[in-house]
Amino acid sequence: MTNNLFYGIGLPYHKLNRKTLQGKLIVIEGADCSGRSTQVAMLKEWLEANGHAVLDTGLRRSDLVSEAIEEAKRGNTLGKKTLSLLYATDFADQLENKIVPSMKAGFIVLADRYFFTLMVRDLVRGADKEWLKELFGFALVPDQTFYLSVDPDTLLHRALIKYGHLDYWESGMDVGFSSDMFNSFTKYQTALKDKFDELDMDYGFDKIDGQRSPDEIQEYIRKKVSALLNKKAPAYRLRPD
User: How far apart are CA 137 and CA 155, in angstroms?
Assistant: First the structure.
């Protein structure tokens, strides 16, 4: 259930409504190397050039717990649920202290990933979906959520070009799919993609083929954002060739 402002009970100590939140929240979701950050940067530049005040944010940017998350990941010292709650705390801190104040001030907030990424990661690791939905019930409903869908083989190729190696966590080595990192990466990213598709049924993402050119994707996103800001009906959905 959603009250159209939050996905659940929301932030009970804040008296918020659509009139007090004068800005917009636009989310770009997708796996690592799906092109999210590129699209956020391009969209921010375009919005600012058109006179909009913009805040960009993402996961692990909370002053409260971001360092604790990084330390825990380096040492692999925390249990799955504890790490999940740390990420949820990071997200809640940013929502309360960055996203909501910026939207009150009329900013357009661009989120390079939202709690959906946290949900799919936890679902792959065996978490209960209803528990996760209740946990993230404080989250604002975005005005627009784009999801860049990219197949695991392409993600593998992009990760090796970008980093020169595979990341332990992005390969899902803690899950136990395989002792071989390349094999584990493919299986883990496939599982994440399946969970994103599952959440799409629940939350209604604007799903985009992330293997199209960055400029083509950006053109589509800008058209949809223009429609949102002008309060017009969305122009079209991006279709495969």
Answer: 30
Q: Is the pTM of this model over 0.85?
A: yes
Q: Do 122 and 132 touch, CB atoms closer than 8 A?
A: yes
């990466």: which residue's tokens? 185
What confidence category does residue 39 fall into, taking pLDDT thresholds of 50, 70 and 90? very high
Residues 18, 5: Cα–Cα separation, whole Å: 7
Cross-strand partners of 26: 110, 144
240 pLDDT above the threshold of 60:
no
CA angle 152, 186, 161 (to 5 degrees): 65
Burial of 78 (0-12, 13-18, 19+ CB in 10 A): middle
Domain assignment present for residue 102? The answer is yes
Which domain covers residue 119, as residue numbers?
24-224
Please name the residues in contact with 182: beta carbons below 8 A apart, sequence gap of 6 or more: 156, 166, 171
The set of residues, in sequence order, having a beta carbon less than 8 Å from that of 165 and lying 6+ positions away, is: none
Domain count, the chain: 1
| DSSP string for residues in 66-125 | HHHHHHHHHHT-S-HHHHHHHHHHHHHHHIIIIIHHHHHTTPEEEEES-HHHHHHHHHHT
Mean pLDDT of the chain: 87
Structure tokens at 52: 């909009």
CATH number at residue 183: 3.40.50.300
Q: Going by C-beta distance under 8 Å and a sequence separation of 6 or more, which residues neighbour residue 37?
A: 112
**Average pLDDT, integer, range 2-13:** 77
Measured between alpha carbons, how far is 32 from 60 in angstroms, rounded to an integer? 14
